[in-house]
Amino acid sequence: VRFFVTAALGYTAIGIVFYAAFVALMLRGAGDRVRVGLRSGACVAAAFPLALLVQGASQHWLKRGGGSPLLLSALCAAIGLAASRLRVLTPVYVLAALTVAVIAVDVAITGPIQAASVLGYSLQTTGRFYGMANASFSVFAASLLLLAAAAAGRSPSRVRATAATAVLAVGLAFLAAPWLANDIGGTLTMVPVTLACAWGFFNRQITPRVVVVGALIGVGVIAGLTAVEAAIGEGTHLGRAAQSNSSLVNTVWHRVEVNVGLLVHQPWGFLCILLAGGGLVALAVQRRWTDYLPPRSPLRIVAISALVVSLLGFAVNDSGPVVIVLCLVVLAPMIALTALHGPAGTPGAAPTRR
Q: Which of 49, 89, 128, 306 has its CA 20 to 30 A from that of 134?
């Protein structure tokens, strides 16, 4: 837990300084060399979740390096700089794919990597020792959204929109499966987000009627999963909520109360909520973002969805602002690289090393 605090505070402090400098330099019209440096910095920032997993693997199998800030910094730099040699937005897509793959395989084999890493700190401090930790869910969900954006492309055809929807559907199934992630909070969060993203990928407008129908479908999916898991009788996450004296609604409400308590003792959490909420409003209403994230484009849909995931995940999980912060950790580098290259991903906008 002590290393978690050190890693979180260290990354947050460095991230604030980097992104503040990024904005200032971009507003002043950064030259080619500066843009190369900013691109490398964004890729190093994007490598943080994967570096945490690699460090966890080192601790689990090699029994060393799990609490070393120096090793974590070296892993971030090595992975990020290697990824920065890829073109345009490919670095964040590749890092997201690797992160999703590592978490998925790890959870499927009982989660030794996340348990040995910072992402699994909740497994070490709470009574739940199976499935996917809340911090891991946050990184998994945000990275899954980036994968969906990569599958959809700039202007998705029906085939690419179907592929992007399939990516999210598989990820949702993984979160809900009792024998895999078994994550009730993640399932509650990703059902509406998956439905909304799928609708957006097919270039359909979200109307009040669509919201109502989507909500009913979401409730039906959750009810079906709960019934199936309760029938299994193996003490699964959703099944216990349905079989116990407290209802699923009471379970969610308990998590909200826990998060409010965490915010009382951690006032900086309000800043995280303001950042996520403010970013969501800015992406939804500010026209200046249309230059980089065009309306109804997969990147804009995914950016808004990641912010929604951070806020919903905060509400239905009991890890406080950690879920919000880690979603922003995954989302911010994508927006930074998009700002460097523009919506069309023009290679000449920010030259990379050859």
A: 89
Q: Is 342 left (phi over 0), alpha (psi -120 to 50) or beta?
A: left
CA angle 84, 88, 90 (to 5 degrees): 70
Q: Are 119 and 304 in contact (CB under 8 A)?
A: no
3-state secondary structure 204-228: CCCCHHHHHHHHHHHHHHHHHHHHH
Higher pLDDT, 188 or 129: 188
153 CB-contact burial (10 Å; exposed 0-12 / middle 13-18 / buried 19+)? middle
Which of 352, 349, 300 lies closest to 155 in space, CA to CA? 300
Mean pLDDT of 80-99: 94
Q: Which of 251, 250, 312 is nearest to 280 (CA)?
A: 312
How many angstroms separate the CA atoms of 314 and 47, rounded?
23
- The separation between CA 188 and the C-alpha centre of its own chain, rounded to angstroms, equals 15
Please give the Cα distance from 319 to 258 (Å, whole number).
8
10 Å Cβ neighbour count for 240? 15
pTM of structure: 0.85
**Per residue in 196-253, pLDDT tens?**
898 999 888 777 877 788 778 877 877 777 777 667 655 555 566 555 545 556 666 6
Token pair in block for residue 340: 């460097």
Under 8 Å between Cβ of 121 and 6: no
**What are 216's two structure tokens?**
């009913």
Name every residue whose Cβ is closer than 8 Å to that of residue 106 and which is 6 or more positions away in sequence.
53, 112, 113, 114
Buried b (16+ CB within 10 A) or exposed e, 4-20: beebbeebeebbeebbe
Q: How far is CA 337 from CA 57, 308, 324, 333, in A?
A: 29, 21, 20, 6
Q: How far apart are CA 239 and CA 245, in angstroms?
A: 12
